[in-house]
Amino acid sequence: MSRVPRGRSIYEGVPVHCFGVDVHSNPVRFSLAPLKVLREVNDFTSLTELFKRFDVVHVHAPTFYSYPALYSKLGITGWGLAKRLVKTPAVWTFHGHLNLIARYAQAIYNEMKYAEEKTAVSKEAAKALGVEWIPNGVNTQRFKPLGPSEIVEAKRRFNVPEGKVVVLMTARWVPRKGHDILVEALTKLSEAERIKVYVMFVGPLDVGYIKYHDEVVRRLVKLGVGYGEFFVKFEDLPLVYNVCDVFVHPARAEGDPLVLPEAMACGKPCVISSSCSYSRIINGVNGFVANSVEGLSSYLRVLIHDEGLRKSLGKRALETALKYDWARINELYMKLYLRALYTQRH
């Protein structure tokens, strides 16, 4: 849903109908308990009509954010009941992280039961749920390394200062993404090393996390680290990745985030936290995986000083990303769609 608007649209030449809400920016407060039941009824009614128009439904899961108790205790879901009523086969893909499985295991299992085929984008989550692993892909025609002159022009566009090691973090401003962890890691660098760094934050700020954002920025300013904040359109993301020297993702929990293959496809070394559960970054080969704030700081220190290492890691990161082009990933999903159709008819 972060890539496609609600309703019917054309994405990469393919007609897409996206049904759902963005739980981060949706103005309806989920604490309004009576409305949860009404939303479930609305989902059931709307989806019943929607599913009649399609041969296969692909569910982006989990879908229980506003009413996990209904999923856990009653074992029902709006889309699941609609799917059974209409008899439309479904492919279910879990996009969440391991912490969600630990916290909402019963809700997730009750949701899974409605689908003929079940997958997860994270290898660790797929193993925990006992489902097939199909990772997120990347459009390597869109996300790719740019030439020197194009990078210079992109730096001018975003007012990136010359002579700095640009550290990029592309993430929504929520604590789970770990902006504060990055700042904590920067505190462990020397003053001379921090002066070399320019941090780019790209991502939306939601009203509920303004205090979190302000505290992160306050600490960064106190450290004397240069930074910039940007909200970038999707079509301009390849420019942002190409501007950076190092991509960081110090999240507290993740489920195969799209930003990592995108950065890798642009030939950038990535430093991630071990909590990201991202199996395609091999420590010291095509990036670094930090087990602690101290580890994150150490890897940043090495990359700040070693341009050759940044380039070699970035080259291998690109080689890894090319193996996961969406064209290959989509072939795997097409096989699942056909299997779901066959299972439903037999």
Keywords:
single chain; 346 residues; alpha/beta; Rossmann fold; six-stranded parallel sheet; four-stranded parallel sheet; 15 helices; 12 strands
Summarize the structure.
The protein is of the alpha/beta class and 346 residues long. It has helices at residues 33-51, 68-74, 78-86, 98-103, 105-112, 123-129, 148-157, 179-187, 191-195, 210-223, 237-243, 259-265, 293-305, 307-322, 326-345; strands at residues 7-11, 14-18, 57-61, 90-94, 117-120, 132-133, 165-170, 197-202, 226-230, 246-249, 270-273, 287-290. The chain has two domains: 7-135 and 326-345, no CATH class; 148-322, 3-Layer(aba) Sandwich (Rossmann fold), CATH 3.40.50.2000.
Q: In CATH, what is the homologous superfamily of the largest domain?
A: Glycogen Phosphorylase B
What do the pLDDT scores average to?
Answer: 89
CATH architecture of the largest domain: 3-Layer(aba) Sandwich
What share of the residues does DSSP label as strand, in percent? Answer: 15-25%
| Largest β sheet strand count, sense and barrel closure | 6 strands, parallel
Order of helices and strands: EEHEHHEHHEHEHEHHEHEHEHEEHHH
- CA-atom Rg in angstroms: 21 Å
The tally of strands reads 12
Assembly type: single chain
- Helical segment tally? 15
Spatial gap, N to C terminus? 32 Å
CATH class of the largest domain: Alpha Beta
Principal-axes geometry comes out as globular
Query: Could you name the CATH topology of the largest domain?
Result: Rossmann fold
Number of domains: 2
